[in-house]
Amino acid sequence: MRFIATTTKSLCWLFLLQKSAFAAVQNIDILYVKLHAEMSAEPLLLKQPADNKTLAGAKLAIEDSNTTGRFLKQHYQLTVVEDNNADGVISQLKRLLSVQEAPGTVLVDVPENAFNAVSEVIRGSGALVMNISSREDALRQSQCAEKVLHTVPSRAMLADAMTQYLMSRRWREWFLVSGNSDGDKAFASALQRSAKRFGANIVEQKQWSFDTDLRRVAQKEIPLFTQHDDYDVVVVADEQHLFDKYFPGNTWLPRPVVGTEGLVPTGWHWTLEQWGATQLQNRFYSQFAREMTESDYAAWLAVRAISEAVTRTKSTASDVLYDYLLSDSFELAAFKGRKLSFRAWNGQLRQPIPLVHPNGLTALLPLEGYMHPVTDLDTLGYDKPEVRCNMAK
Amino acid sequence: MNLFNVNRFAKLTMVSLLALPAAVQAETAYVSNEKSDTLTIIDTDSLEVTNTVDVGMRPRGIIFSQDYKYLYICASESDAVQVMDVATNRILHNLPSGEDPEQFALHPNNRHLYIANEDSAVVTVVDTESRTVIAQIDVGIEPEGMAVSPDGKWVINTSETTNMLHWIDTSTHELVDNTLVDQRPRHVEFSKDGSLVWASAEIGGTVAIVDTTTRQINHTIRFKIPGVHRDKIQPVGIKLTDDGKYAFIALGPANHVAVVDAKTYEVLDYLLVGRRVWQLAFADNHSKLLTTNGVSGDVSVIDVNKLKVVKTIKAGRYPWGVVVKP
Question: What are phi and psi of A302, to 5 degrees?
């Protein structure tokens, strides 16, 4: 039977190749910029991020889009630009953008502090920027820019999602612990904003000191560190997971741990199986032999959004695609139980946020009951009246 | 579990022996339960569950042979289409189905089964007599809905992530055309005369009416239920009455079935059923409509003449497909 499948497939391709000789094939080249991040602490070899982290999601989406493209005479191709330093990646990028036939789309997978520099170069060429890596709120709230779209959820979206759940459980009193990286501080601010927004109360806030080696003394250190009269949850903001993993089941009071460890809000998780998600998870696993992560999913979304726009507009011009993506007509099925669309005022892709623990899905946010005049998905993250920048051309 | 089944079976055998003459008139509904790996068998007259039968893993699409002697079952996680002897409720054998069969359609020749293989982006054509695969046709990503035109000329498959209806010529088993529809097409249903195709788009929230001759969309039906967010209106199963009067459309997590005028495409009513309603089947000469409600684990019974929900019947876990034997 496998033989039959292969034969039929190759016959089909032959047929398509013949056919394509008569009709023009639309080629869609998508650039992928990857700047390798420096890790502040090297994780165990076992827990190193995969070499194809994020990129694998884009590759799968290219394949998905080409399966569809067969029927529409579209061919998608991914060109990867990668380097260990920002200058190197920018000069490579400039070279490639200068020879592009027409402005296309660039997926940006770079550390947050390099995002603006890379994005400026791309925008300068007229190409469309798809942010698949930076969760920075400023990019959605005060610095949003024309032709910059975000498929990765912002910290504010993640924090709001988690807070909605905590409030639904009446876990209002928080003990907040953050690390000292810029990302940790940014996530802690997002959590403070969410607490205020939904009515939670931060009863204690501490920064982790990094004075001890927790591998030996976690059981002594964490209970002491979390001593306080009372709180409902311990919220940890430690994006690089340097200490947060020692908190669950180890706090002074017997309370749940949430945030970057314990119950975690994320864009995607392997435990999603509803709404056809199993099919995507299986496709990803059979190709890359690992779990699909939230960064893979953000990259998958970016390519799928572009290919959906190409299919519906029959155009590859970046201006046409950008206008369509921000319009009311654009909708994307993405295995989260409802259609996704972009917020026209800041370029963020609206999406439900799973709240997970390592082996299970606890909730999908927003929860029923959080009302919004336009769509309840906009109860997550900065809403239109809170956004201080302008996407207009 | 086993003990329960045995007891139940003994009891049911007695009941059916005693009630044999009366049972001839009633129709029998078979419901596939995706999570409990069983079929729930319902008497459509008494609207009671009469039996529960163990089948393969993750049964979804189910369909009868034209003489109702066999029930074909897509046992998705067993990677098989099972053939059940309807008289004895025993699985006779498996058909080679390709990976992860989800839905299928039987050609009017009563012989060729067209199976959507969700994980491998192909439609597999199986000869149910020789039990062999006679063709595999490449389609879009996540093939799902399947239908054969009444004249047997066309097979349509929907692909959920490619968002298309794929038109397959049954004489050549070639894919000859595609119709782009809204997000995540789930189900296709031919009108009785075969001139139109009704296609539901689950995430798009629409039903497209497609002309079989031009293979273009004639009309798009949209839905609006007060108090239900539009994103939750997710059409899946479609059934058309033989008299051409109504179309019933299951709206998934909106927990309603839409009643549509099959001529004007106007939505006439929304009937509240169980939670996450997916598939539909007529019973008792189109006087009843049964719905599978996945999340609430039951079957709603709609009186087609009164357009009212008259009963809810408990089924297994995640009821998925439903078919009725006269």
Answer: -60, -45
